[in-house]
Each structure stands twice: as C-alpha cells, then as structure tokens.
Write a structure and sequence with these properties.
Low-confidence stretches: 520-525
Helix content: over 70%
Distance between the termini: 21 Å
Strand content: under 5%
Mean pLDDT: 83
Number of helices: 19
Length: 525
C-alpha cells in the first residue's frame, strides 16, 4: 500500500474515533450540567481536572509524541525493529518513573498547586478543601495519559492507529458511567466525577497493552534506561514543550481580552470554539496525526521527493475536506448553534452572538489544519525550533489583531484575530519549510484547492437556498423539531451536492476518498 493510501486510511480511522469521542464529550458535558449545574462543586472539579490536563497538554500527548515518533521511526528504518523496541522500552520505563514521581509530588503539594491556579477559592475554605481533595484524586491521571501518549507514538509509527484514537472514548464513558453509578455513593457527589477520571485513564492505558504486545513491545520488563535515542527525544521535546506553552498562553490571553467585553462574550467564544474543534479534530488533527509517521519514515530514508509528494497530497486532502466544512458552517451557523445549545437560559440572542463568533472562527479552519500538516513535516525533519518561533510571532500578531478588532467587532473581533494569526502562521511555516527542502508543488496544490473551493461554494449556494426556504436561517422562526429535521436535511443535501460537484472539479481528490470509502465498505460487507 502506498504512503498516500496508508495516510488516508489512517486519517479515516483517527477521524472516526475522534468523531465518536467528540460526541461522547458533548454527552459528558450534558451529564455534568444535569447533575451538577454551575455549582461550587463543579467549579472545584473543573479547576482540579485542569491541573493534570495542563500537564498532559504541555508534556504528554503533544510534545512527547511529536518528539518521539521521528526518532523511533528512524530507528525502525535504519537499525531495525528489535533496536527500536529497546529504545521504546527504555522510554516507557523511564517515563513511568518520572510520571510516578510527579504524581506523588502533585498529591503531596496539592494545596499549594490549587492556591496558585485558583487563589480566589481561598476565600471559601470548604471550596478550597474540596478542590484540594479532587486534585489529589485526579492527579494520577497524568501518569496514565502520559504513558498512553508514548504508546500512541509507538503504535502510530507501526501503522496502528485505532487503539490510540479510541482512548479518549474510554475517558468519556468512564466519567459518564461513574456519575450515574456513584452519584449517591459519595459525599460530596462530585467525587464520582473525579473517580471517573482515574478509571478512564487506567482504561485508556489498558487498551493499548494488547496491541503493544502484539507488535512485539515488552517495555514493562526490567532493563537499562540509558538508551541513546532517549537523549535525542529529550532534546526535541524542549522546544515542543515551549510551543505547547505558547498555545496555553494563547488561550489565557483570549480569555482575559474577552472578559473586557460585554457580559457573555467569554461564553460565546467558548461555545463557538467547541463547534470549530469538531471538524478540526475529525479532519485536521486526524490527518496531521496520521501523516507524522509517514513523513518521519520518508525523512529517515532521505526520500525527499516522496516526502514532498506525501506533503502535497496531505494538503490537498485537508483542503478537499475542510473547505466544504468551512462553507457549510458559515451558511448554517445559526441553525447549528440553535439546534445544539438554544434551550433554557441560552436564548435566541445568545445563538446570534455565538453564530457570529463561529463564522469568524471557521474562516481559519483551513489555515489551522494546513499549519498542522506543515508542523508535522518540520517535526518529521526533527526541526522543533521553527514551529516555536512561528508560534511566538503568531501570538504577537494575535495580540495586535485583537486590540485592533475587538472594539469594532467585539467578541467577533477576537475570533477573527485568531483566524488571521492562523493564516500568518501557515504562511510563515510554509516559507520556512520551502527554504528547508525546496519547492513543494505549489501549482498542483493551488489547482486542487481552487477546484475544491468552486465545489464548496456551489454546495454553499445550494444549502443557503434550501435553508432559506425552510426558514431556519434566523433563530426562533421554526420549532425545535422542525429545526432539527431541516438542519439535518440541509447537511445531507450539502454532502450530496458537494460529492457531485467534487467529482467534476477536483477529480483526483474525490477518487482517492471514494476508493478509500469503497474499500472499507467492501471489507465490511
């Protein structure tokens, strides 16, 4: 199977699993809202869970995987499976020791950690004590998810994507189940939610072990820790952690700026971002995750022409999928927001403002997805410094755009600032990648993107006409049952129209996706 086919197949697996996880995440949020509302107890849990989550984002899932995969892939290609597994085993044992120590420190110093991250809770001794308790319960999650991240890098490099991609599903299921099963068992009941985090983390790690064993991994067997490959991973991780830190600053800055705007601005941006993350996770991040091992293998073999070909294919596919998603979300912004959120205290005005932010956010969907592919290329070439430099410049640009746009466009200005800084990031990353490896096949990519854009605009026009006659383009015009029916019909019609237009205007990308779907359907049949 060619690298293109493997990449597309892997992206389909990761994207499908991500879709399931995002849907269950929405169910989890709904369960939390039903049982805990906006209570002090839920605030305590959210702060407590934010601490191991922050460590996960900084050190585990992102930076560890992107630093480990290129080095591990190089060992696979140049030194063989056995030596690569020795390196992986040493990394697993060393990481387990580090994470165990970090967990112990987190449990011991939980009061100090909570004081730093939520100093306002000190005014309410009961809330502070509850947050400390929940922090101690949830902190071991970093142990499990850190090892899951390493397993993900190993399995993805060995062309297995299903188990790592399905791991978040187990966290959501565990949290939902624990609330329903143990809500009345614990006092306070929110402990059931924290228990779900730990059980979910353990299940995520346990899911990886059978597949790791099948691939020949025996890292849990005692052995030396001083493998030379680990030093290279550590060197690459430094800039990657810094890059992840810049992203966290992005979030904090956005929240601070939104808090200066009229009441509700933070919430509008939060809900709009949640909707944007759905196609981004299913299509953008999934393809970037699937592409990294392929890029890393080709880079390790010094196959620059093959690497460029895989890159061009990845960019064309990402635009083929994300352009119609962008146009569709812009046209159906208000119906989709209303369908998902407009109930109770979330009224028609909130729908309008959230849809406003959503439109500006999704304008950057292609730029964010494209940047993820370029970053994967740079990581495959073991360049983790360039993405950090570009991330810092993009953060400065985001601040400048935000200050210029937040006054005339309010919260929409902050969303548009994020889109513009993402576009700048893609341009800078592409420029540096081109300087590093030469021409990237820009004409071929541009031709494909223009074909996808024409098909997407045609689909958008058809959906707009359909939605206009259905009367769902403004909140409050139809009942909830009609809104659900017509929105689903509009989405279905849009998919059908885009397939028809794509088969004419972007044949190669359409045929590649069609062959993949056809093979999977045939295999299941």
């Amino acid at each position: 199977m060619s690298e293109r086919a493997q990449m597309t197949k892997a992206a389909g697996v990761v994207g499908g699993a991500t879709a399931i996880s995002r849907v269950l995440g929405y169910v989890r949020d709904a369960v939390m809202a039903y049982f805990f509302g906006t209570s002090v107890a839920l605030d305590a849990f959210l702060v407590a869970f934010r601490i191991p989550n922050l460590l996960r984002r900084l050190f585990a899932e992102g930076s560890l995987t992107i630093a480990f995969v290129p080095v591990f892939s190089e060992y696979l290609e140049k030194k063989g499976h056995e030596e690569a597994m020795r390196m992986a085993g040493a990394a697993f044992r060393l990481l387990a020791l580090i994470l165990a120590g970090l967990t112990v420190l987190g449990v011991i110093f939980a009061p100090q950690v909570v004081m730093v991250l939520a100093p306002g809770f000190a005014k309410n001794p009961d809330q502070f004590a509850l947050t400390v308790l929940l922090t101690r319960i949830t902190f071991p999650y970093i142990f499990f998810i850190g090892l899951v991240a390493l397993c993900m890098g190993i399995l993805n490099s060995l062309r297995h994507f299903a188990a790592p991609a399905l791991a978040p599903v187990f966290l959501n299921v565990a949290m939902i189940a624990c609330v329903y099963l143990f809500f009345s068992t614990f006092e306070p009941p929110v402990i059931s939610l924290a228990l779900g985090v730990i059980i979910g983390g353990a299940l995520q790690l346990a899911l990886q072990f059978p597949f790791m064993h099948k691939k020949g991994f025996r890292g849990w067997i005692k052995g030396p820790l001083n493998h030379p490959g680990i030093k290279r991973v550590a060197v690459l991780m430094g800039p990657a952690v810094l890059g992840a830190g810049v992203y966290q600053v992005y979030i904090i800055v956005g929240t601070i700026l939104a808090s200066m705007l009229p009441e509700g601005s933070v919430s509008y941006l939060y809900y709009a971002d949640r909707l944007t993350q759905l196609p981004l996770g299913i299509f953008g991040i999934s393809l970037a995750t699937a592409a990294l091992p392929s890029f890393s293998r080709q880079a390790a073999n010094k196959d620059m022409e093959g690497l460029k070909d895989s890159f061009g294919y990845a960019i064309r596919i990402i635009m083929f999928v994300n352009l119609p998603a962008t146009v569709g979300l812009i046209v159906l912004a208000q119906p989709i927001v209303g369908l998902l959120f407009e109930r109770g205290a979330f009224g028609a005005e909130a729908t309008i403002h959230t849809a406003h932010a959503l439109i500006y956010f999704v304008l950057g969907l292609c730029a964010i997805s494209g940047a993820r592919i370029v970053v994967s290329m740079l990581y495959a070439l073991q360049d983790t410094v360039t993405p950090v430099r570009v991330a810092i410049l993009s953060l400065v640009a985001y601040l400048a755009f935000s200050m210029a746009l937040m006054k005339p466009l309010l919260h929409g200005g902050l969303a548009l600032a994020a889109t513009l800084s993402s576009a700048l990031s893609l341009a800078l990353l592409t420029y540096h990648l081109r300087r590093k490896i030469g021409p990237l096949g820009g004409r071929k990519i541009l031709k494909s993107v223009m074909g996808s854009l024409v098909a997407s605009l045609g689909m958008g026009a058809a959906v707009y006409v359909f939605a206009h006659f259905a009367g769902i383009l403004a909140p409050g015009q139809v009942g909830s049952a009609q809104l659900t029916l017509w929105t689903m019909l509009c989405i279905g019609a849009g998919i059908v129209v885009y397939i028809g237009l794509a088969s004419v205007f972007c044949k190669k990308e359409f045929q590649a996706m069609w062959r993949l779907v056809g093979k999977r359907v045939k295999r299941r049949g």
